[in-house]
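User: My collaborator sent over this chain with a note saying "see what the structure looks like." That's all I know about it. Can you take a look?
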Amino acid sequence: MRFRFGFVLLLVIAVLAGCNLSSGGAQTAPTPTTAGGGQPTVTLVSPANGSDAALNQAVIVNVTATDSVGITRVQLLANGAIVKTVSSQSTGGDRNMNVLLDYTPTVEGALNLQVIAYRGNITSAPAAITVNVRRVAATSTNTTIPVVVPTQGPVINPNDPTCRVVTNSSVNLRTGPGINYNVILVLGSGATAPITGRLGDNSWWQVRFQTATGWVSNNVITVYGNCQNVSIPPIPASPTPPINPTATWTNTPPSPTSVVITATPGLADLVISNISGPSDLQIASGQTSVSATFSVLITNTGQRATTQFNNIISVSPGGSTQQLGVVGDLSAGQSVVLNIALTFSTPGTYTLQARADNDSQIAEQSEVNNVGIFNVNVTAQ
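Assistant: Without extra context I'll predict from the sequence alone. Here is the result:
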């Protein structure tokens, strides 16, 4: 009996082992598959293929990238070399990412631009165009320089003296210079804002957008204009975690008290929004001069009304400076137009420079954006 029982037991074990082998007991490595989600797609919105670009002026490429999982970065290549990379600010990437990528050509001729979108290591098929880089005559500073810009993107004026940023993609405007600070609002792709401050290493910029002032990272913006005089403002204290209150039981409820919250307005900020007038004048035959009227638009983009302030306009060459007018007060968000007639007696190219609050009587958020420039070309018959 014992022999039979042992034999039966061995037979059962053998049958079970055979079943295990036939049902996958010896496992094989899975076959590698392509990452889910397919390829990202990228669309080059502007500039158009075959369009012109100015030598030594920024070409701004407007791009839309999509992916069912998330775009992690977008790269711009100029003649095969990577010249700009913009990364998503989201940990998992963005399913739809609108990006502005800039490149300044330094050589005339055909320029091949390619844009590639990434989801991790998965790349899109490149979107490519060719633009023709041409030299702009030095005497044409009074005309609009043909900078290639996106259809719905910012128009960058190379003569604008104000230091500004333009966002390359959707950007968080934060209360301080770091990702640990709270987000005030999100600036869309192509938003422009004047710079009011910076960190010492230029890794973060303080900007003013409408009525909000905050900080943006240098990794997601492009800086334009004259930024030599941008100061380093006081840095806000790092945010601390909130303290959870401890409840205390009391039989007698406290008497209610009224709390009055008084909002303290920020400073005013005067900006030369626009200078308008004829950019080409001609001294008629038999005349010794030509005159024209120019309008200077001053806007208070700050949060507090101003008191009285003076304004001037200078003309160079020649170095003449004239009073533009006195403004009694200007409320936050309001604008005023000051007109002045100027006379030119010699042919040539003149630069008009208007300055608001020229004697610095108004405390402002920024003192570096009070200047506007306009060029006038005078010829003789």
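A starting point for your reply to your collaborator: The first helix runs from residue 2 to 22.
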